[in-house]
């Protein structure tokens, strides 16, 4: 009698067998879920009632949202304490060469809180903005405010570095940016108008008590030239500039004595008031000590940049002359850079 | 007619009476009392200042602009002359309060006719409570008056069409013409009512014929002889001239002579211009060039140069959907939804009426009346005013349609508790408007709805912050308290007539002198209305400071700043 052969261990069921095993319960589950999903559709109300219920539900929901909206909005905006805190911090840590940038641009409340020595800028974008004389930018932002955009911060990040994480003051955020390559202008030409000599047709123009130069017009030629230093709006942005207004023909010369000159003279010009008429380009010539530095033909659209190489006259002070023949009121500013 | 009022409310209202007229009168009294009491709160915008300048020569501004519609200035002048005991601003704004009251009454009356008492209780709130609409009702006399008279014109037109006898139709037709003339004398672009109602007169018979075909009935006979039909019956020869005149002016004869044109339209064409000519004789003052002055008036309405000529009639379309988008952003979201639902509901009812249900003419009339001002604004034919005012004539009809849709929805959603649901929906629609109006007061013209993100979201999107310098009024008390005695004040972005009116009412301290230019001023009050800020920036140079001494805000959005020369602010 032989001992029985040991039997092979049972083989685990293969995938097909597993599938056959699970098929019925899975099918039953799928049928139950489909029936559950179809139940609301089978028992749906008539179309009119369904629409009416939907409308009523929406009205009640929007009504609740609308009633609470002022409270919700208030919670997203800074409190008076937040603004005071930002103002105190800027007063404590602000230095010459700092500016405040607000984001969103309408958040100009900081101008009441920040020290008067810190200019506040409220433009929508800063790409390509000169920021002459600025070393540090304090970005005051309201990130939770409706319509907030990261655009100003992105523009600043392209040319500045953040030295510390943003400081949260309630719903306000304060971030300090140090410009990577701050410009240190040698001179800002509009600020030198007080000592200037303005002439037209060789005749000097007297200045009034407010520092505005007025050139008398020839008989029958309408108003003459006026040149003065003012803050004016160009393309929605406040610009400190020399304002030149004239009869639309002819030329005016502004002579600025003892201006420190570096390697570059960079400036901007733009129209004041309505857009320039077609074909109304302005020619701007610059001379240093009577020698031509260069000229620019400024097109009648927007805030245009011009740049002249002044390296021949670098490292000294010179008599600069701006010769202008604008077709309509013009805002001009320029800086000399090392 | 649906009238699912809760029992308790029904008992209270029984005291007031069930008729639509009584409810309309109650609404009128309530709205007039509120508007008269609140009228001194909001500031004066540039448009309103122009009306006041024409009404009160002491406000200066040179000769009154004759190309502006005269009725608002005329009413303001009468009110100002008659009510010397009130402040100048209150007296000048009483006609606007009366117009708002008339509007509320008309809306309540029409809503009651369409959908019962519940709708009559809801509709005036929808038309007047939202901050922008309330602000327009209080401060824009030409718009509120034109909206009220436009609504009355449409009601009279409908009465004329439905009157049982020719005499009644004639009377209502004349009333339609007179009301139309008054609406045009209030705001010139109310003239769009004529083509709108003419469109209705053209389409309604066609739709009625279609309805009859859908019902399998013979086409309805023409109500009146058509223009292509047989000649009107000859009258018997009369013996005296008076008898002959009476014979040809009998209403039936006149109606037959119109050959299918409704009395109301004829009234608008004949009586309307007569009323306009009486109220606005300047329009007829150039006999050699009869179109010159009307075209100048149209150019002034649309903000075009005076010499625009026929170009003033050309459409300058806005961006597609701009009026609808502006409405959705400026109003609370629930209200915008209700207005949209009202239009959809009306369209649905029109389709159903064409298929056989009753009321095809009325549904068509309501839709045209609601949509015509929006279409006019879309095409750029209405004045280019701020906010919702260019298409304000739509809102009475939108409110009525929205109220009807709300009541109908409550009835369909929960028939057994329709009254309670109507009350809940009324609260859901009116509470956001009430809360927003209180929150924004008195800067209703600066308010924006939830979809825009409120005033901050709208400012981020570059939308206007106010209508025309009216928010500067919020800084007058602080100016009075802290300005140095004898300081010179310049107001930038504020109409000169508004500044003079503030001074006349004592809201500007008597010792403070008004000057025109920032260079001459010690204090500059600058309003931020989304337009140029050049005057404000010039004030920075003149006063040697860019730091405001005081400011007015709505949800942290600056509406006005005060800048002060050193030593001029205590």
Features of the shown structure:
heterodimer, A: 338 residues, alpha+beta, 6-stranded mixed beta sheet, 25% helix, B: 570 residues, mainly alpha, 5-stranded mixed beta sheet, 22 helices, 59% helix
Concise summary:
Chain A has 338 residues and is an alpha+beta fold.
Structure description:
The complex is a heterodimer of chains A (338) and B (570). Chain A has 338 residues and is of the alpha+beta class. Chain A has helices at 15-42, 47-76, 80-93, 110-113, 151-157; strands spanning 98-103, 120-121, 136-141, 160-162, 167-169, 172-179, 187-188, 197-200, 203-204, 213-214, 226-234, 237-245, 252-261, 264-271, 282-288, 291-298, 304-309, 316-325, 330-337. In chain A, strands 7, 10, 11, 12, 14, 17 and 19 form a 7-stranded antiparallel β-sheet that branches. In chain A, strands 1, 2, 3, 4, 5 and 6 form a 6-stranded mixed β-sheet that branches. In chain A, 33% of the residues are buried. The model of chain A has no long low-confidence stretch (mean pLDDT 87). Chain B has 570 residues and is mainly alpha-helical. In chain B, 59% of the residues lie in helices and 5% in strands. Chain B has helices spanning 7-16, 20-38, 46-55, 71-82, 88-128, 131-139, 141-162, 166-186, 193-215, 241-248, 251-258, 263-279, 292-301, 322-330, 333-355, 360-378, 395-413, 418-440, 454-460, 476-482, 496-504, 534-543; strands spanning 488-492, 513-515, 523-527, 550-554, 557-564. In chain B, strands 2-1-3-5-4 form a 5-stranded mixed β-sheet, with helices on both faces. In chain B, α16 crosses α17 (395-413). Residues 225-232 of chain B have low confidence and may be disordered. Chains A and B meet through α2 and β11 of A and α15, α17, α18, α19 and α22 of B.
């Amino acid at each position: 009698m032989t001992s029985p052969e040991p039997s092979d261990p049972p083989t685990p069921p293969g995938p097909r067998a597993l599938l056959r095993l699970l098929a019925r319960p899975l099918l039953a589950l799928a049928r139950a879920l489909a029936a559950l999903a179809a139940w609301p559709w089978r028992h749906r109300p008539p179309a009119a009632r369904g629409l009416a219920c939907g409308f009523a539900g929406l009205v009640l929901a929007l009504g609740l949202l609308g009633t609470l909206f002022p409270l919700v909005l208030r919670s997203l905006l800074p409190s008076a304490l937040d603004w005071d805190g930002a103002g105190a911090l800027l007063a404590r840590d602000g230095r010459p060469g700092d500016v405040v940038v607000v984001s969103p641009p309408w958040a100009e409340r900081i101008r009441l809180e920040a020290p008067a020595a810190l200019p506040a800028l409220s433009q929508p974008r800063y790409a390509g903005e000169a920021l002459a004389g600025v070393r540090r930018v304090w970005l005051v932002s309201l990130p939770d405010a409706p319509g907030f955009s990261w655009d100003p911060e992105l523009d600043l990040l392209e040319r500045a570095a953040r030295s510390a994480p943003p400081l949260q003051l309630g719903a306000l955020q304060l971030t300090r940016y140090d410009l990577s390559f701050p410009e240190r202008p040698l001179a800002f030409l509009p600020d030198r108008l007080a000592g200037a000599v303005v002439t037209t047709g060789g005749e000097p123009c007297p200045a009034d008590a407010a520092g505005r130069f007025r050139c008398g017009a020839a008989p029958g030629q309408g108003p003459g030239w006026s040149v003065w230093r003012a803050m004016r709006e160009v393309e929605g942005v406040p610009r400190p500039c020399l304002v030149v207004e004239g009869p639309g023909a002819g030329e005016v010369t502004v002579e600025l004595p003892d201006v420190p000159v570096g390697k570059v003279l960079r400036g901007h010009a733009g129209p004041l008031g309505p857009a320039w008429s077609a074909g109304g380009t302005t020619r701007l010539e610059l001379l240093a000590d009577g020698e031509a530095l260069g000229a620019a033909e400024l097109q009648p659209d927007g805030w245009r940049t011009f740049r002249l190489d002044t390296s021949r006259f670098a490292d000294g002070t010179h008599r600069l002359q701006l010769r202008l023949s604008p077709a309509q009121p013009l805002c001009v500013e320029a800086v000399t850079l090392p | 007619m649906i009238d699912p009022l809760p029992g308790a409310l029904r008992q209270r209202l029984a005291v007031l009476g069930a008729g639509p007229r009584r409810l309309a009168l109650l609404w009128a009294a309530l709205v007039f009392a509120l508007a008269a009491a609140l009228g001194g709160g909001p500031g004066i915008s540039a448009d309103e200042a122009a009306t006041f300048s024409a009404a009160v020569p002491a406000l200066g501004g040179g000769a009154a602009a004759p190309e502006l519609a005269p009725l608002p200035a005329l009413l303001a002048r009468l009110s100002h002359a008659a009510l010397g005991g009130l402040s100048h601003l209150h007296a000048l704004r009483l006609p606007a309060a009366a117009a708002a009251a008339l509007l509320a009454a008309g809306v309540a009356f029409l809503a009651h006719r369409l959908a019962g008492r519940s709708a009559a209780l809801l509709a005036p709130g929808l038309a007047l409570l939202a901050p922008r609409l309330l602000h327009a009702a209080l401060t824009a006399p030409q718009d509120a008056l034109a909206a009220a008279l436009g609504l009355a014109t449409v009601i009279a037109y409908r009465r004329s069409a439905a009157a049982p006898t020719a005499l009644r139709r004639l009377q209502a037709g004349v009333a339609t013409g007179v009301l139309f003339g008054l609406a045009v004398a209030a705001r010139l672009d109310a003239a769009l009512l004529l083509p709108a109602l003419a469109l209705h007169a053209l389409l309604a018979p066609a739709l009625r014929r279609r309805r009859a075909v859908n019902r399998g009935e013979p086409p309805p006979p023409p109500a009146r002889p058509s223009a292509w039909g047989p000649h009107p019956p000859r009258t018997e020869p009369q013996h005296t001239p008076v008898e002959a005149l009476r014979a040809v002016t009998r209403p039936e004869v006149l109606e037959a002579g119109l050959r299918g044109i409704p009395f109301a339209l004829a009234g608008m064409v004949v009586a309307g211009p007569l009323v306009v000519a009486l109220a606005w004789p300047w329009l007829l003052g150039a006999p050699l060039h009869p179109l010159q002055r009307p075209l100048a008036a149209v150019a002034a309405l649309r903000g075009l140069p005076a010499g625009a000529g026929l170009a003033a009639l050309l459409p300058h379309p806005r961006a597609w959907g701009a009026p609808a988008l502006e409405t959705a952003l400026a109003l609370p979201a629930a209200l915008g939804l209700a207005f949209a639902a009202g239009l959809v509901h009306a369209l649905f009812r029109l389709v159903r009426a064409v298929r056989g249900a009753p009321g095809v003419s009325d549904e068509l009339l309501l839709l045209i009346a609601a949509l015509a001002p929006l279409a006019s604004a879309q095409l750029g034919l209405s004045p280019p005013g701020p906010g919702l005012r260019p298409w304000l004539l739509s809102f009475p009809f939108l409110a009525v349609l929205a109220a009807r849709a709300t009541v109908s929805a409550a009835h369909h959603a929960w028939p057994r508790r329709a009254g309670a649901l109507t009350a809940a929906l009324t609260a859901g629609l009116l509470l956001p408007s009430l809360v927003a109006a209180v929150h924004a007061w008195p800067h209703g013209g600066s308010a924006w709805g939830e979809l825009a993100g409120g005033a901050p979201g709208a400012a981020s999107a570059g939308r206007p912050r106010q209508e025309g310098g009216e928010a500067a009024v919020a800084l007058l008390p602080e100016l009075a308290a802290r300005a140095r005695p004898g300081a010179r004040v310049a107001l930038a972005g504020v109409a000169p007539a508004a500044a003079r009116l503030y001074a006349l009412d004592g809201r500007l301290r008597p010792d403070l002198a008004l000057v025109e230019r920032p260079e001459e001023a010690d204090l500059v009050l600058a309003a931020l209305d989304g337009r140029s800020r050049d005057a404000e920036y010039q004030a920075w140079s003149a006063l040697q400071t860019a730091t405001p001494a005081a400011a007015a805000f709505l949800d942290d959005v600056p509406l006005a700043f005060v800048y002060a020369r050193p030593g001029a602010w205590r």
